[in-house]
Amino acid sequence: MTRFPATVAALSCLAASAAFAAGPSDAVAVNPPKAPYQKVGDLVALPDFLPGIGELFVDPATLPAGPFVAYDHDGRLVSTIYMIPISQMNADTSFDNLPAPGGDVDHVDIYYNAGHPGVEEPHEHIVLWHVPVAGEASVAK
User: Fold this and answer.
1) Topology of 3-139 in CATH?
2) What is the pLDDT, as a whole number, of residue 6?
3) Which of 78, 96, 123, 136 sits 20 to 30 Å CA-CA off 52?
4) Dihedral sign computed on CA atoms, order 69, 128, 54, 68
5) pTM of this prediction?
């Protein structure tokens, strides 16, 4: 599978980014985050809160990849998400110095998405969780 090397490269970069992150940047520390971040639900036909992800904000200039920042129902920053189109995931792809504006990364999830408004192309969600696994429940519903 040609995506495996790119995924390994992405994980390596994410680990490096996580090692240098100390806390959320001032721009994303509170909900709503500061400009240039905008609510995804205002940019595309998506609900304001997505179960399993949360309330998303993104700098439109970084679409489709992001980073997106996600908040729970209480406005707490829970994750930074990248949405990388499958067409960009190949053996020649690497992701260097991906920022983690949400700060310290507790764990990382990577999963496939067939596409949705805003990122219609099939893509991988690379989720940098800033909360422990148990904290994911805050965006489950």
Assistant:
1) Phosphorylase Kinase; domain 1 (3.30.200)
2) 42
3) 96
4) positive
5) 0.80
